[in-house]
C-alpha cells in the first residue's frame, strides 16, 4: 500500500555540477525536493520506487545498484540507485536525477528500485502500473520524477504555447491536493503537445494512491526556464 510520495522535477540542471554558474537559480527547487524526501523517510516505508520518464532504452525496471551518469551533460559525475551490484545498463536521466537526490539526502530507509516510464504510456496503463507498485509491499513510497510543460515562455525549449500555464496550474492543483481523479483526467494529447514529461509519472502515482487516502502539499511551483517545475509531498 502506498504510504507516501514525493513529486520532484527531473532536469539535470537540478544537479549543481551540471548547472554550473546557474546553480543558484534552482536552490529553492532543490530545497523543496529535500523537504519532500524528508516526508518519505518519515513514513518508514518497506520499499521505495523511483519512477520517471524514459526513452525506449531506459524504460522498464532498474534494480537497486543501477548506476547513472551525467557525462552526457558535460560533467563526469556518476550516481547509484542505492547500494548494490551495478546493472548492465544505465539509469535514464530522470532516474539519475532521482538517484542524485537520494544520495544527497543519504537515503538508507529501505530498499530502492527504479522504473523508467514511456511518456506516451496511456492513462489506463499508468494507472495499472501504479496499482501494481502499491501492491509490492505493505508500506510503499514513491519518488516521482517529472516536469510540467516545456512551453511557458518564448525562450522555453518548446517555445511558447498559450495552453501551457493552464495545464501546469491544473497539474499543480492536483498534485498539491493529492487529487488522483484530477491527475488521471490530465489530457494525454495536450501533455504530449506541451512536452510535459511528468504526465505519465503523475498518472502512475495516481494509480498507486487510489484508496490510500493521502493528503498532499505543494512545495514548489515555478517555471524558471520556461518549463513547469513542481514539487509536492503526499503522506
Describe this structure in words.
The protein has 235 residues and is an alpha/beta fold. Helix content is 34%, strand content 20%. The strands form two sheets. The protein has a seven-stranded mixed beta sheet, with helices on both faces. A hairpin with an 8-residue loop joins strand 4 and strand 5. Helix 4 packs across helix 8 (199-209). The longest helix has 16 residues, at 27-42. The protein is globular, with a radius of gyration of 16 Å. The termini are close together. The mean pLDDT is 96.
Stated plainly, the CATH topology is called Protocatechuate 4,5-dioxygenase, Chain B
Supply the number of structural domains.
1
Per CATH, the architecture is 3-Layer(aba) Sandwich
Number of helices: 8
Number of strands: 9
Q: What string gives the helices and strands in order?
A: EHHEEEEHEHEHHHHEE
Task: Output the CATH homologous superfamily.
Answer: LigB-like
Q: Specify the structural class.
A: alpha/beta
User: What average pLDDT do the residues reach?
Assistant: 96
Amino acid at each position: 500500500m502506498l504510504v507516501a510520495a514525493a513529486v520532484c522535477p527531473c532536469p539535470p540542471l537540478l544537479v549543481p555540477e551540471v548547472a554550473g554558474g546557474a546553480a543558484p537559480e534552482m536552490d529553492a527547487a532543490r530545497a523543496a525536493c529535500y523537504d519532500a524526501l524528508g516526508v518519505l523517510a518519515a513514513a518508514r516505508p518497506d520499499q521505495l520506487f523511483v519512477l520517471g520518464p524514459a526513452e525506449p532504452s531506459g524504460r522498464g525496471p532498474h534494480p537497486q545498484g543501477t548506476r547513472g551518469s551525467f557525462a552526457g551533460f558535460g560533467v563526469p559525475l556518476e550516481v547509484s540507485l542505492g547500494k548494490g551490484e551495478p546493472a548492465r545498463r544505465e539509469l535514464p536521466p530522470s532516474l539519475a536525477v532521482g538517484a542524485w537526490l537520494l544520495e544527497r539526502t543519504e537515503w538508507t530507509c529501505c530498499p530502492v528500485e527504479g522504473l523508467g516510464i514511456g511518456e506516451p504510456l496511456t492513462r489506463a496503463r499508468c494507472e495499472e502500473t501504479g496499482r501494481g507498485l502499491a501492491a509490492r509491499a505493505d508500506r510503499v513510497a514513491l519518488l516521482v520524477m517529472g516536469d510540467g510543460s516545456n512551453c511557458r515562455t518564448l525562450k522555453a525549449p518548446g517555445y511558447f504555447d498559450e495552453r501551457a500555464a493552464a495545464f501546469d496550474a491544473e497539474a499543480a492543483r492536483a498534485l498539491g491536493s493529492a487529487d488522483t481523479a484530477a491527475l488521471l483526467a490530465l489530457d494525454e494529447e495536450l501533455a504530449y503537445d506541451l512536452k510535459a514529461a511528468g504526465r505519465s509519472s503523475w498518472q502512475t502515482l495516481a494509480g498507486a494512491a487510489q484508496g490510500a487516502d493521502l493528503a498532499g502539499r505543494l512545495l514548489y511551483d515555478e517555471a524558471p526556464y520556461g518549463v513547469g517545475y513542481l514539487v509536492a509531498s503526499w503522506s
